[in-house]
């Protein structure tokens, strides 16, 4: 720490930001895309593009649930779990999935099928893809890692982010003035202005999203209150908190369940006007079979859905949860709802998305600015050290590699054969392989020329993505606009806008490269 408070806070802000900025950029990048994960999933499923939204969606749910459960009873009577996802404002299809029974304690694989809720017929050629859910899980599970380890890493990164935000506010002498100040073509000063502008304009969002992100994992970070009150620790605490998540293991004794329509009628007799989001039936045709009805919270500031649990054998209501939250539960659940943004209508969701982009700019500009400042302090004949080279390589690999890897994921969705084994995993593998290739290039060299080349590649890839979509599906940007398919049109327009942003960056880098070449030439002339 330094000799006075301000310099100490400056040092703290710099190093808490720099040490985790690349992982933090990944978390922010994936989290920002996750605000539109259902829309990305819709784009990734061409078979669902022509499914029309229902005008009387809630009124039709009763028949849809009965039809879906009857389909599963015929299709997968020996499955471990049945899952029915009802259509809603953002997802027009109906999921009819089941989990196979696993062997030797290993959980079985999910088999996904989807229906058109209007005709209640199965959709053909529904491709195996994770869609937007890949970015959602990447945001906090980091993929290829043990889930618990990944969440500890994300938690510490978020804590560093929170410290960086607080220390940034402390050292910011002109916080309101910098909201309206940006000086272009001024070298390091420009990067500082970009960092300040993106930080201050979305500061409430940055603090909210970071703090609530830590709250989502609070019982993993601080398990001791639950451990002191419950013999079984967190497991017993959550069993008491949400009894609907607990269920008895299958006994293997086969019995007849109530007819599917009677099970659904049993629920609607008591709750006729509830908007249902999903129905899950555990251990079908076992004496412990239960069916869970989950309500759609819509725009409520509540993340956990109200749920009612019935015996699938007797029709008895066994338990319910999240229907009447205590003040502390409301506060905790509300914070998680604010973090996930599931409560948001389209306008608020776009605000979340724009603030997420501002967060990415804040992180990226801070990382680049650190390297620029070190370069500015170096003597003309001084060679960059290992630390500077590492930072520049990580900057190039992360800031330019992630967008390229994202396009690889989208191209894989359109170009891989539908009948390919483990197709969804192949899309994800291509994402990381592409990112690894960019990282190898960055390790080899990370100068202005490489930044310009990767900007050019981003322009090409993002600009060609709507064309690839038009060539491999029945729709295109013009047809989407004419048919008012705003989600699909928005995806294509966002690709074009992203390409335009990289085009501007490419031109600026080309100008900078020419200036560097002229400066190098003059330096050589003086030396000779």
How would you portray this structure in words?
This protein has 528 residues and is of the alpha+beta class. 60% of the residues lie in helices and 8% in strands. The protein has 18 helices and 9 strands. Strands 1, 2, 3, 4, 5, 6, 7, 8 and 9 form a 9-stranded antiparallel beta sheet that branches. A hairpin with a 4-residue loop joins strand 4 (114-116) and strand 5 (121-122). The chain is globular and about 85 Å long. It starts with a helix and ends with a helix.
**Per DSSP, what share of the residues sits in E-state strands of 2 or more residues?**
5-15%
Rg value: 26 Å
Distance separating the two termini? 46 Å
Give the class from helix and strand content and strand pairing. alpha+beta
Helical content class: 55-70%
Shape: globular
Poorly predicted residue ranges: none
Number of helical stretches of at least 4 residues? 18
Q: How much is the average pLDDT?
A: 88
Main β-sheet: number of strands, strand sense, barrel status? 9 strands, antiparallel
Multimeric status of the protein: single chain
What order do the helices and strands follow? HHHEEEEEHHHHHHHHEEEEHHHHHHH
How many individual β-strands? 9
Topology summary:
Layout: H1 5-34, H2 37-43, H3 57-75, E1 81-85, E2 94-99, E3 110-111, E4 114-116, E5 121-122, H4 133-141, H5 147-171, H6 188-201, H7 203-216, H8 218-221, H9 224-229, H10 234-241, H11 260-270, E6 276-282, E7 290-295, E8 307-311, E9 317-321, H12 327-340, H13 346-377, H14 386-415, H15 423-444, H16 448-472, H17 477-482, H18 486-527
Antiparallel strand pairs: 1-2, 1-6, 2-3, 2-4, 4-5, 6-7, 7-8, 8-9
Helix pairs in contact: 1-4, 1-5, 1-13, 1-14, 2-4, 3-11, 5-7, 6-13, 7-12, 13-14, 14-15, 14-16, 16-18
């Amino acid at each position: 720490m330094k000799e006075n408070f301000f310099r100490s806070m400056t040092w703290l802000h710099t190093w808490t930001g720099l040490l985790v900025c690349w992982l933090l950029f990944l978390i922010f990048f994936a989290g920002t895309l996750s605000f539109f994960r259902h829309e990305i999933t819709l784009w990734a499923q061409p078979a669902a593009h022509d499914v029309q939204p229902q005008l009387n969606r809630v009124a039709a749910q009763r028949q849809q649930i009965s039809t879906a459960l009857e389909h599963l009873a015929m299709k997968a009577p020996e499955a471990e779990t049945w899952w029915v996802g009802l259509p809603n404002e953002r997802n027009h299809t109906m999921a009819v999935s089941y989990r196979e029974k696993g062997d030797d304690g290993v959980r079985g694989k999910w088999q996904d099928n989807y229906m058109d809720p209007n005709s209640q017929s199965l959709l053909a050629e529904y491709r195996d893809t994770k869609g937007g859910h890949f970015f959602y899980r990447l945001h906090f599970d980091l993929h290829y890692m043990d889930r618990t380890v990944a969440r500890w890493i994300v938690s510490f990164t978020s804590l560093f982010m929170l410290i960086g935000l607080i220390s940034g506010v402390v050292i910011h002498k002109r916080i309101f003035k910098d909201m309206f100040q940006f000086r272009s073509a001024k070298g390091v000063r420009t990067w500082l202005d970009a960092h300040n502008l993106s930080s201050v304009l979305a500061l409430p969002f940055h603090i909210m999203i970071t703090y609530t992100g830590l709250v989502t994992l609070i019982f993993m970070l601080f398990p001791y209150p639950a451990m002191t009150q419950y013999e079984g620790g967190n497991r017993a605490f959550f069993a008491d908190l949400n009894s609907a998540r607990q269920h008895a293991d299958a006994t293997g004794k086969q019995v007849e369940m109530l007819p599917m329509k009677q099970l659904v009628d049993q629920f609607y007799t008591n709750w006729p006007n509830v908007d249902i989001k999903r129905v899950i039936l555990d251990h079908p045709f076992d004496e412990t079979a239960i069916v869970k009805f989950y309500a759609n919270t819509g725009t409520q500031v509540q993340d956990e859905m109200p749920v009612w649990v019935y015996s699938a054998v007797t029709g008895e209501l066994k338990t319910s949860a999240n229907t009447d939250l205590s003040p502390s539960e409301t506060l905790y659940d509300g914070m998680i709802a604010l973090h996930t943004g599931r409560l948001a209508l389209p306008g608020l969701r776009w605000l979340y998305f724009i603030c997420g982009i501002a967060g990415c700019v804040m992180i990226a500009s801070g990382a680049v600015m650190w390297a620029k400042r070190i370069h500015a302090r170096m003597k003309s004949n001084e060679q960059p050290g290992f630390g500077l080279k590492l930072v520049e390589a990580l900057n190039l690999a992360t800031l330019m590699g992630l967008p390229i890897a994202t396009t690889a994921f989208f191209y894989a969705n359109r170009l891989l054969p539908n009948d390919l084994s483990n197709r969804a995993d192949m899309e994800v593998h291509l994402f990381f392989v592409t990112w690894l290739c960019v990282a190898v290039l960055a390790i080899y060299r990370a100068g202005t020329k490489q930044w310009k080349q990767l900007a050019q590649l981003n322009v090409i890839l993002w600009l060609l993505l709507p064309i690839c979509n038009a060539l491999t599906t029945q729709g295109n940007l013009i047809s989407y606009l004419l048919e008012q398919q705003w989600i699909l049109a928005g995806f294509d327009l966002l690709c074009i806008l992203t390409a335009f942003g990289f085009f501007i960056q490419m031109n600026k880098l080309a100008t900078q490269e020419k200036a560097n070449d002229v400066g190098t030439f003059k330096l050589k002339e003086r030396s000779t």
